[in-house]
Amino acid sequence: RQELLKWNGWGYNDSKFIFNKKGQAEFTGKRYRLGGMVLPTFKEWIEKTFGASLEHKTTSRTSLNVNDVPPSVVNEEFLQDLRATKISYSQDAEDRIFRAHGHCLHEIFVLREGMFKRIPDIVVWPVCHEDVVKIVELACKHNLCIIPFGGGTSVSSALECPEEEKRTIISLDTSQMNRILWIDEKNLTACVEAGIVGQDLEKQLAESGFCTGHEPDSMEFSSLGGWVATRASGMKKNIYGNIEDLVIHIKMVTPRGIVEKNCQVPRMSTGPDIHHFIMGSEGTLGVVTEVTIKIRPVPEYQKYGSVVFPNFERGVACLREVAKQRCAPASIRLVDNAQFQFGHALKPQVASIFTSFLDGLKKFYITKFKGFDPNVLCVATLLFEGDREKVLQHEKQVYDIATKFGGLAAGEDNGQRGYMLTFVIAYLRDLGLDYYVVGESFETSVPWDRVLDLCRNVKERIVRECKEKGVQFPPLSTCRVTQTYDAGACVYFYFAFNYRGISDPIHVYEQIERAAREEILANGGSLSHHHGVGKLRKHWMKESISDVGLGMLRSVKEYVDPKNIFGNKNLL
Amino acid sequence: AKQTAEWPETVSHPLFVCSQQKELTSKKRDEFEDILEERRLSSDLRYAMKCYTPVIYKGLSPCKPNAIKSAVLQSEQVQYVIKQLAKEMGESPDIIQEEATEILDEMGHSMQLGTVRFFAFTLSKIFKRLFQRVCVNEEGMQRLQHAIQEHPVVLLPSHRSYVDFLMLSYLLYTYDLALPVIAAGIGKADFLGMKIVGELLRRGGAFFMRRSFGGNRLYWAVFAEYVKTMLRSGYAPVEFFLEGTRSRTAKTLTPKFGLLSIVMEPFFKREVFDTYLVPISISYERILEESLYAYELLGVPKPKESTSGLLKARRILSDNFGTIHIYIGQPVSLRTLASGRISRCPYNLVPRHLPQKPSEDIQEFVSDVAYKMELLQIENMVLSPWVLVAAVLLQNLPAVEFELLIEKTLWLKGLTQTFGGFIEWPDNLCAKKAVMSGLTLHSNVARLIDGHVVLNDKGVEDGAVGEIVFKRALAILMCATYRNQLLNVFVRPSLVAVALQMTHSFRKEEVYSCFSFLRDVFSDEFIFFPGISLKDFEEGCFLLTKCDAIQTSQQEIYPTDKGNVIVSFLSAMFRPFVEGYRLIFRYLSKETKEAFTEKQFIPGVRNFVFQLLEKGITQCYEALSSDMQKNALAALVQLGAAKKKKTSSGFSYNVNQEAVNKILDMFDARIPVQKPMAARL
After folding, report:
1. Sign of the CA dihedral B476, B482, B488, B494?
2. pLDDT tens digits, B143-170
3. pTM value?
4. Nearest-CA distance B76 → chain A (Å)
5. Is B112-380 a domain of CATH 1.10.3470?
6. Where are the domains of chain B?
7. ipTM
8. If you classify domain A302-523 with CATH, what class do you get?
């Protein structure tokens, strides 16, 4: 799989944004709906939004310089023991670099033009639970450090090796543990090895007519074990739940031994749920090897939809009402105006004059007839799932609520494009990097009554910090309400700026991101809704969960892993 | 390359300097522009009817005053209090809601353009008759204009006269800025009594709060929510007076915190991104109410501010009140002030609409900001030549030779500028002319007779002793009103000078202890940033060194040869306060019985001082000022020598005789002052 993926950017090698010979933007490859399409307005949008210009280009080095890579230091005794287990391993530089990072901006930047100070010394590929037990035993015996590696899509610096780690670092790649062990149709559960990647899991379950319904935006690359370790959240959580709702049983190998429960039941009252020590432990306690997860029959019918609101305030009010009536579709998201325009810029060239005429008519109706200001309006995208009849009924209910808040139905196509965007947007950063634009996303969760204030203040803070830090052009600072709950919402921010004229863009970027996080916390938002803490947000843990709370987590770590074998230094 | 993306223009704000130490090098200030000049040249009617399209807050969603009122009434905050009260009193919420509506109507503003135009016209006429010039720093207006577009704005003018808020609104209209909504206090006999003018003012945009509503939770809730709604929506700048009331002495009053904490709350709760606080210094060459204030300070009831009273005040219109200077300070970003100061999320764990007592952190911060704003007001307060004349004259009673007065005034001008005072001395005006014009303008206070300048205490020669004392006191208090404008600029070096004289010592440690004691005693009299006694001392020493009055070494402070003149002058400037406090403390230590109220205290101490004056035992007329008397009592409470208790009819006081005697001893330098922080020197 490593061969299919970019070594210095997001996703598949064959999929990326380019500017073609005519200077028009184009998305390559055939993997996505956008593949091979020309995006005529995109270039203008980039220039307008960032002040970026195609004439100013940076280039990443084209391949890794193996000589720069820190050498692999592994003692021979361990290697002998490892060979005896027959578990495959590698000390190859490219293999090690590939597992030395996640997808934070600074990590990608290092890949493009620098080198990590510390990377894993060896990569091992266990193929089953027992292999993992052996590796952990060996690590304990030789006092080595293990960093579990799943899909490598972390955005919290969780995969970075601590620079000061003197022991050999083993990257434990779970990708070969990717089988579905069994499916229990009576209880609607499946036991799956933790290394399986989201899209493979869904594909294989689909063969039996089932799905988990867990679809984080990274599902093409992220793994089941990774979801558990970070407390992941999926796009369709309204129907299927977040990872903590989906998991029935977890098996984890720790230096202290194997932790698991004695039965696979929907709920039990046996003290604090030990699953909650594991979920969100971010690889600090052990390796998740097998997970029993809830499954559902593949839904009969899916329908996208979208609603245009005159402004963001009305949109949020509508989402709140939908949440209040507990009738949220599988997914409901509200993007602000900047993101709406962004999505608009990624509209492919229209095939016929007729569709273009239709588009014009729609636009005329919304802006002129209904009086929506195109620079203020915002869009909600919807995804319904289930029985055909129920979906249609559900759809009507939601659209009726939307109408009360001034919303206008804006078609299936817009909705579908909105969801497609979340998959391709990660590719966009690589394009930006080629043209002096750095960007990143971050998220939070917040009570309903503070959603508007938080969105406004965080966006404003970003703009101000950029200006103060000498950024030459106003940044893109945009958000969407991406999940709704009874008591609040999850908000997702995109933030990007043109760094021409700044000598240390990464440092500036990090300062601004930090300021944005401070702003989130001051506005009553959480440290993270689903990305996790890693090393990037550790700084705020104490304030987030109190001294005692942190102490509770520390004492668990102390008991489970006294020698700090799982020494990735995340979280605590 | 095409570069369409550009930064919007914004105001840069100054960073908060925690030390609070002012830039002591002579600060560059903006130039003034006379707005009446234009008024004298063109039609007032056309001016009143001009196209008035003020710039507005960028995030404003336009709405009518009525919409705001109903938003306030329906707000969670007000509804919460209504429900609470209904439950507690066993009444139906509807009745309380009605009460809330009435409150809102009483204070609610409803700006009507017609009224604004009416005001613009009449005020033009009136101001032109009353004042020679109304000078404004135009750069300040421009900064304000930017600020209004960017964030909610709170205007914090100094308060010396009723003219203050009329003038400020007039000014904003002139510069095409949104008229502020004014949180002006109303007492029983105050503004609201003036039915017609009151209604006119309301339509002009003023809104009113009762002066005391401590106990009325509903009133507080409605009022607070009203102010906050104004701010959140960015509907108009909110204006109020930190000092709470007009300063009768022209000396900045210690700040009140209630309104300030209300306007800061939307930011604390992150309902707004930021809030601009704009200190505004309004100084009058001659204060309209000067004689009224003097009577009031001496305990003669002031005439009610009824409409008919105002009409009688027509005769004032024929008088000349010189020049007004209005300095719009740099807008200060609350966010910048707060950064790093207060814990990030004090409001995260409780719904924001629930009334919540601010944490100590926040209370302290509010107080610091209040003092900082007042210090900024003081810094930009314009001092006229007459202020210097008054200060010299008061040290040379009963009469001073005209030439000597000029000489000393010039000398004081230099000293004031060294201390950072903002003197407007018309460029090529010679000292003689400046003093003369001051005397002309203030002929009711002082006169030139036979080459000597004397206080205008007419009729002193004839009449009973008591009347002579009263008239003299009146003249001195009026004159003091002008000298007082210097005091907050002079207070730090002067208290060092007083301490030097009181301790008879050159040891820095001892001088500092005495300084620190004086600073505590006078903490209600002058404006000190809380808790930085040592910094204030250092600033005082620095300024004295700068004018060559003292020399300092590691351990010692001693006046230079020529410095004695300055040190004596400075300590004489503050002698009325040292003397006055001493008298008041003496009264309290001997003459009072157990518990007393302010209403008993003021006449008591007044009689006491009056008798001493009659007998000629003291010359400290200023001790008759009720302002000083109240401050001295408050000082005792702060120093722990008196206890203040809340009773059903107000406050009552208990004095600890022993403690007061001890303070008196310190004043008389009979025992050395404690050395609280000597170690830090």
Report:
1. negative
2. 999 999 999 999 999 999 888 888 998 9
3. 0.90
4. 11
5. no
6. 112-380, 383-456, 457-669
7. 0.89
8. alpha beta
